[in-house]
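>> received
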Amino acid sequence: LIDQGVGILRNTGDPARRTKFRDFITRYADARKTALFTLGNYRRGAGDTDLEAFVRAFQDYATAVYESRLDRYKGQTLKVVGSIDNKPGDITVNMVVVDPDAPSQLRVAFRLHGGSANYRFIDIQVEGIWLSVDQREQFAAFLSKNSGSIPRLTAHLQAQAQQIMAAGPR
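>> returned
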């Protein structure tokens, strides 16, 4: 799966690359689970309409972030160096980014949930920092400054996703 996602990003000549990457994320990432995790305690008492709008905005934002960050490594390869069975249906796959021009290798991990052949990504770790945990802290700070308004956070994520996509790959 990881090779498939990176393969989509490597194909910079494909005009449908962004669409294919979005489809890949939609199919193999559990954005709902991750989005609701990032809300932390602010999820309690939130209405279904606000939560669904947030999940959609989070998916757009996360896809933009993943594409932006992973695009930096399209010329390198990923090498699996191990995995950890956290519990049944919860696996962390540890990898390194192999770059012949870099003196050290970047450590990356993907957390997967599921079973059999139906695993889905729920988080990415780069150099020891889990993206969803980092986002949860950022979102909590935003929400604490905005009266806990999930609709405001949703609008903020929509604006962030648009900025990232407009900027293109970095």
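>> The chain has a mean pLDDT of 87.
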